[in-house]
User: Fold this.
Amino acid sequence: MSELEQAMIWFEQESGLSLTLHDLSHRLWRQLPLTRVRHAHPACERVKKGAYGDRCLAFEISAFREQAAEWKQGRLHRCHAGLVELALPVFVQEQLLLVLFAGPARLKQPQLLDWREERSPAAARAEQGLELPELDAAELPRRWEQLQQLAARLRCWLQDHEEKLPEADAPRARQIQKYLEDHYAEPVRLKDVAEILSLSPERCRHVIRESCGQSFSSLLMQTRLRAACALLANSDLPISEIAQLSGIPDPSTFTRSFRKQHQCSPRDWRKLHGG
Assistant:
C-alpha cells in the first residue's frame, strides 16, 4: 500500500466520508487503486445509470475543470441528483492537478445549500438501502481542515515528483498542455496553439518539441487518449461515443492509437480498470 493511499484511508477513518480523487495530472494512477480515481461509491454508480447519468458524467469529465478556479478554497457540492460532497481542487503553480471529493453524505441542515426540499427523489433512490454518513454544520470546519491537510500532502508529493523541465520551458509547456486539455475534443490545429503563443506555426512546432519533449501531434493524441481513459473508467458509454468525445471521431484510428499507447484495446482496458 502506498503512502498516498494510507493518507486517504486515514482521512476516511477520521471523517467517516468516502474519498475520490480526480487525477488531472495523470501521475497518481500507479500510486493508487483505480477505484480511488473514479466515483465508485454505490450511490454514485446508481446515479450514473439513472436519469442524471449524462449530467453527472459531464461534470466528472470536464465541467469541474472549468468551475474549479471559482472555488479554490473548496465548496460544499450538491450533485445533479442531490447527493452532497465536499469538493476541493488542488492547484500547483496555478495549474489544476487534482480534485478531491469527500462523500456522498446526507446534510443535516439542507438550508446550507438553499434547498427547497430535503432530498430529491433521485437522491432518495440512489441512497435506498445504503447507510450514508450525515454531515452536521458544526462538523464542517473540522472536515474541511482534514481535507485541506490531505490536499497539502498530495501537493507536496506532486511537487517532489514533478517532471523537471528547463526553467524557461516550464511555463510555456504548462500553457500548451492546458490549451490542449481544454480543447482536445475539438479539431485542434497547430496554428491554434501558435496563436495563443504568438508564434508562427513553424516556430510553434519547434517550441512544442523543445518545451514538451514531443511533437504536436503526439502531444495532442496523448491528451486525447488520457481523456478516453477517464471516460472508459468512469462510464458505460459505447467505445464509439468515447472516441467522439475524446476528439478522435474515426473508430479505427481511435482503436489503433489506443492500442499503440496501452498495448491493448479500449474494450480490454475497460475490463482491466473497472469501467
